Amino acid sequence: MLRYAAIDIGSNAVRLLIADISKQDGLYKYKKNTLIRVPLRLGDDAFLDQNISPKKAGDLVKTMLAFKNLMDVYHVTEYLACATSAMREAKNGEDIVKLIKEETDLRLEIIEGQREANIIYANHIEQDLDQSKTYLYIDVGGGSTELSVFFKGAPIASKSFNIGTIRILDNQDKEETWEEMKSWVKEHTKAYKQLAGIGTGGNINKLFRMADEKDGAPMSLQKLNSLYNKLTSYSLKERIHVLGLNPDRADVIIP
């Protein structure tokens, strides 16, 4: 058995996943061991100022050092650390990568949007998808949204768009990007009569849990609209204290 770790430095939060990998009947299986999430919200700096502030850079280094120590304690055999939208746009992103290497000895890679989309759909490629359906895979992050189209269980197109919950909250999303995304979806799905959507990301996962749907069960548009109306009827403080949402989730769930 192998023990791998993945570090995701996103626009809203930084995450560490440690998983145990085993091979059964010729297939690799993984079991989640530990998942830690730290809401640093680097996107607020990157999207507004095009730089990560010294304060948040310092917090990121401390977080990465903590992750390094945890990986040592858990005897992780290999890891991959990737930074996405916020670090892509920050002018001092590469400087922070070097600082993290110096302070923690961790290798961090700032990945492009297309590779981010590829990693996301590859992570779910072994799901039991209905071969008769075409799927639009939607991953909504803090700084970007990754879209992938699956046909007969294989990805046929994918693209990353600079539309995310932190970016919208900070009024940094652009109308032309929305139009580009709509056009892309129409172009790459027009040939298929049946299309099912699969959504991932912190907000989508939280909405699914709030809807109290069974795992694998679809959520109807009616249910989604009902949830939206419920959330918008509460103030930010009420979403935190009445609905029990974390502060870093309560503001971005309906940006």
Helix share of residues? 40-55%
CATH secondary-structure class of the largest domain: Alpha Beta
Mean pLDDT: 91
Gyration radius, rounded: 19 Å
The name of the CATH topology of the largest domain is Nucleotidyltransferase, domain 5
Number of strands: 9
> Unreliable segments (pLDDT under 50, ≥5 consecutive)?
none
Biggest beta sheet attributes: 5 strands, mixed
Describe this protein's structure.
The chain has 255 residues and is an alpha/beta fold. The chain has two domains: 2-111, Nucleotidyltransferase, domain 5 (2-Layer Sandwich); 127-250, Nucleotidyltransferase, domain 5, CATH 3.30.420. The chain contains eleven helices and nine strands. The strands form two sheets. The protein has a five-stranded mixed sheet with strand order 3-2-1-4-5. The protein has a four-stranded mixed sheet with strand order 8-7-6-9. Strand 2 (14-24) and strand 3 form a beta hairpin. Helix 2 crosses helix 4. It is globular, with a radius of gyration of 19 Å. The protein starts with a strand and ends in a 5-residue tail after the last helix. The mean pLDDT is 91.
